[in-house]
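Example 3.2
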Amino acid sequence: MKHQDPALAKLSLKNPIHFLALGFGTGLAPKAPGTFGTLAALPLYFLMMNLTIPMFIIITLIITIVGFWICDRAANDMQVHDHGAIVWDEVAGMLITMIAAPVGLLPLMVGFCLFRVFDILKPWPIMLLDRHVKGGFGIMIDDVLAGIFAAISLQAIHYFWPLV
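Structure, written as tokens:
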């Protein structure tokens, strides 16, 4: 992969681990790679949205658990901790946000916005985890928590103002 960023030059989209870590290539967006990485979760969500809640949770857990390893491998290959192009954490965080969410365009848009707000602003304790936990676990855990916060917020919004 030709790129001006020396860390990105160490990756290849032909490598399945790199391909996934880069959110199917969306992490290579020159601006807002985290937002594009979150968008990369949408095809997965559309495939999963009509599953039972337990099945949705199981698949999301698998994506998240494998993500710890994927992100760690990509970061090690790049020799950079939590490079902005590594966006598998956003994919997992967005799917966590949508656990037990009502199916529909409005809940999806609200969930997307909530996740991006929590991921960008990193309120306590997300900021603490982002700053002090390293490796694949560190890359993933702040987005996992942002997804949990966004999921709780989405459920609260839906409770008081039904989205469907």
